[in-house]
């Protein structure tokens, strides 16, 4: 990599941290953390403030029909822009960084360029997408999904909140973010999202920058075993139809499967509800959740098939019914190899340690990857905590990540 | 067995069934079944009616300080009496037969003897014991436990209800059953309890009379696994402290152990509570119940030790804490071999098919077995249902059981 004239540029760390603190005031929770559910009053306040920041930086702001907001910093030529961004909605007990960090760092990049009088060849855009979290309206990543044509606009607007009858369309109108710009795949040169890891890997391996190669595929299932409730003391083992036992054996099978597959295979049984859930009564019903993830599509499909086959077999052997409901099914996403290399090279040029890794969580970048070369940059999350008011990344780590974003955007926008 | 002069005596089936129906009216539930929780108003009403039945049969009635009621039908000689009986309290959604059947059949035996003008050598007693179910006050089998000296009277009287501040002592006084007779091991010749099986074995094996050889030992434990909550997508398997996975592997281990032990070993994980119990969050806590039963003390102890060792090992391997709480621990009870033979012989003499079997549930007879030769007679339970408003035994099966009780009591009381 030849040294570019802008390679000595650095973001203003204090200004970045201040923006994060300022944004965190909207929906701030007592004792720390943020509650800025999508399209709530707090979200509106955060959006208004962020839009004002964009305007103050001289950016042109557009809002589309699903409420995605894009600020544009003009380039020297009228070429497809290089986009960065993330989201500023949070879960009900969220932290200051999930999503917000990527948007505020994007603004800080623009502020840095502006302060240095640097103008790029291509325009640079900073976006925040509607309802990434999915905590109030499902599915998650809604704004970016609609933008890339993965969900019809009308269906998204008609989506009801999980806790009342308000729709996305109602709430966008109410808070003033039912924008006039059309939705649809934007003509974007490339997309880079900076985000906290939300997992413990970088911290455990003592690396500063995660070079994200892709997003794991996700298979979410609910398995419902239905057997017969009976007395735990008077029912011989051979005469039981124990729904709970079937579910728990299935959970043990999943754990063994994950160990057997190795690689990037993950498996979690985080939810299990037994009925009647009493010490001396054989469970008549067990409803369990299965969360399988893999960066490779083939083993993920194979794992799903094996789990279902085992569940049906153990149920059948025990005279128990097994029903299966698919709750989510996302193929793995591979980010653009050149852009991933670019992230890694610029981190190294900044003297930062890196780790190539998949993203375990879903991000807007996986939607943008459908329409343009995309990549992500991760910074460490203390103890891997996220969706948690105790979410934390050290200030210097936040600044390192923003500098990587700055350099990658400069590289892309000056191509 | 030589034919005794009374071997042709039979109970009046219609009268027996009528008494069961009549008693079932106290605390009757809409649509069937009975709610006669210990020392409730409904229990008082059932007790008052049953005491009147005893008096109408010419029995002397005594109530002891823990509310156990004993009706005595005098014998020709002043010898230790032969006792039968059970309980008339029920669970909140109980059936007509659990406990009640044994008491009503005892009264029917006395009514039969009275109608036939038969007087036995030894007195015959019919008892009902306080709070056998343990549904309102714990422990269960309280009245018989106190009677045989297994629990101090004062501790029993001070026991609070599970749902309010009322004590056993308060409630006995309130319903008029804080009796004047002293508690303490009664001088009883022998004890025979007739009961529904509460399990499916007799029905499955198409036998009419269960010759109960003893009561299984019971080991109840609560295992609490405490790990760390984390994101199911971003936390590598090797960095997890998954409390739910530990619990569910432990449940699978218990099932394998039971299969490996065979014999009378039973194992049930009927209760499991995960926290936070979400599809994409690794459980930070899993509280599971373990119900182990065996008719033999040694393998039951061994099973308990193996389960605890496994729980601690899986927890330790996963960086999870495991706490263990013993909730119940009853040694197996063997009934008196001669009295068990006596039950079997009289069933055969009546032309009834039999099965030697353990009792899976606890019964007052296991308490009486501490102070006198004791045994039990079981009749089938349709589908093994019990503690259930759909509890059912066919009328002719109820009558068969009462005739076995009649003959066994005559045999014992005329020795």
From TrEMBL, chains A, B:
<feature type="domain" description="Peptidase M20 dimerisation">
    <location>
        <begin position="214"/>
        <end position="316"/>
    </location>
</feature>
<dbReference type="InterPro" id="IPR002933">
    <property type="entry name" value="Peptidase_M20"/>
</dbReference>
<keyword id="KW-0378">Hydrolase</keyword>
<dbReference type="Pfam" id="PF07687">
    <property type="entry name" value="M20_dimer"/>
</dbReference>
<dbReference type="InterPro" id="IPR011650">
    <property type="entry name" value="Peptidase_M20_dimer"/>
</dbReference>
<dbReference type="InterPro" id="IPR036264">
    <property type="entry name" value="Bact_exopeptidase_dim_dom"/>
</dbReference>
<dbReference type="Pfam" id="PF01546">
    <property type="entry name" value="Peptidase_M20"/>
</dbReference>
<protein>
    <submittedName>
        <fullName>Zn-dependent hydrolase</fullName>
    </submittedName>
</protein>
<comment type="similarity">
    <text>Belongs to the peptidase M20 family.</text>
</comment>
<dbReference type="InterPro" id="IPR010158">
    <property type="entry name" value="Amidase_Cbmase"/>
</dbReference>
<dbReference type="GO" id="GO:0016787">
    <property type="term" value="F:hydrolase activity"/>
</dbReference>
């Amino acid at each position: 990599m030849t040294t570019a004239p802008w390679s000595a540029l650095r973001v203003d760390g204090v200004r970045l941290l201040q923006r994060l603190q300022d944004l965190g005031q909207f929906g701030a929770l007592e004792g720390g953390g943020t509650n800025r559910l999508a399209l709530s009053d707090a979200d509106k306040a955060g959006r208004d403030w962020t839009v004002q920041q964009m305007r103050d930086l001289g950016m042109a702001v557009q809002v589309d029909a699903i409420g995605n907001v894009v600020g544009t910093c003009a380039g020297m030529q009228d070429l497809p822009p290089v986009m960065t961004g993330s989201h500023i909605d949070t879960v009900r007990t969220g932290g200051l960084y999930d999503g917000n960090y990527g948007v505020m760092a994007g603004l800080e990049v623009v502020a840095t360029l502006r302060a240095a009088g640097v103008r790029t060849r291509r325009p640079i855009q900073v976006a925040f997408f509607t309802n990434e979290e999915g905590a109030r309206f499902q599915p998650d990543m809604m704004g970016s999904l609609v933008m890339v044509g993965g969900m019809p606009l009308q269906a998204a607007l008609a989506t009801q909140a999980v806790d009342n009858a308000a729709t996305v369309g109602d709430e966008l109108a109410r808070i003033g973010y039912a924008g006039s710009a059309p939705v649809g795949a934007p003509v974007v040169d490339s997309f880079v999202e900076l985000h906290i890891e939300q997992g413990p890997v970088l911290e455990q391996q003592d690396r500063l920058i995660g070079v994200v190669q892709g997003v794991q595929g996700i298979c979410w299932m609910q398995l419902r075993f239905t057997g017969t409730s009976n007395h735990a003391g008077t029912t011989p083992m051979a005469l039981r139809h124990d729904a709970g036992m079937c579910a728990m054996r299935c959970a043990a099978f999943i754990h063994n499967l994950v160990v057997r597959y190795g690689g990037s295979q993950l498996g979690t049984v985080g939810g299990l509800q037994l009925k009647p859930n009493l010490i001396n009564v054989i469970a008549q019903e067990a409803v369990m959740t299965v969360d399988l993830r893999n960066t490779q599509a083939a083993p993920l499909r194979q794992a799903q098939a094996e789990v279902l086959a085992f569940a049906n077999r153990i149920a059948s052997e025990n005279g128990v019914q097994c029903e299966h409901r698919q709750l989510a099914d996302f193929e793995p996403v591979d980010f653009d190899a050149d852009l991933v290399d670019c992230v890694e090279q610029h981190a190294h040029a900044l003297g930062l340690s890196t780790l190539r890794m998949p993203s375990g969580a879903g991000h807007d970048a996986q939607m943008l990857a459908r329409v343009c070369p995309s990549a992500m940059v991760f910074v460490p999350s203390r103890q891997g905590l996220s969706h948690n008011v105790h979410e934390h990344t050290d200030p210097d780590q936040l600044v390192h990540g923003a500098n990587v974003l700055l350099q990658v955007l400069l590289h892309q926008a000056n191509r």
